[in-house]
Amino acid sequence: MAEFKPRIRLDKKEVKKGETVDVKTLVSHIMETGFRHDPDGKLIPRMIINTFTSELNGKFVFGCDLESAVSANPYFEFKFKPEESGTLKFTWIDDEGVRIEATETITVT
Amino acid sequence: MWESMSRREVLNVGAGAVAAGVGLTAGPARALNDYAEQIKKFTGGKTPVEGRVKLDLPELAENGNTVPLSVAVEAPMAGVHVEEILVVAPANPNARVIRFRFSPMSVPEASTRIRLAETQNVIAVAKLSDGTFLQATRQIKVTIGGCGG
After folding, report:
1. What is the pTM of this model?
2. Is B148 on the interface with A (CB under 8 A)?
3. CATH value at residue B127
4. What total number of domains does chain B contain?
């Protein structure tokens, strides 16, 4: 199985209530479109990350449904105002059901 | 072709092509996909209002394999938040590009990188928690297509 290596960058990990955190995420994945053919002319089956979610202490923060048109090694940037301190969990799920997970800790004062 | 048509004309032609089940032959361009259907499905048949959505794409992408895309919705009224944003690409093999999902904690903006098969008008439709839909369209020229078609 391929190495996925998620990378997360938060612009700050300690914020005052009401402040915005900027999150950048990157994960390595081929994102095979399902539209390409191999040298023998056979269609290469689709193999993409189809879902990404981010949760704070289990509460949904941001997510997306991906299609073939998202580039290889999907990158997302989003912003949110954390309501409480805790664990920010990131989950990517691909067409084979492989889950890639990463966490970050956020402190709200 | 695209340049000489207004957005409304493009939409009409697209809808006509879908309805008739035939391809639109715009020179080398491939037939438009079912993007109008996908938007309709997303809005439940409501017509999105043009504006208040900022869709950022480069004017020209030399490589359609990785095109930076940013979308943001102008701060809605208090108590109303952006629930989802759907991005469609009418000249890609598959109309749907990505659907962002937001929460009340979210700032209604997001960025990613996408693949575009050719020059086209990318459309972003935002769904607000009060049941209204907003839309923005942006043309992008693509030199080398990136859908591996």
Report:
1. 0.85
2. yes
3. 2.60.40.2470
4. 1
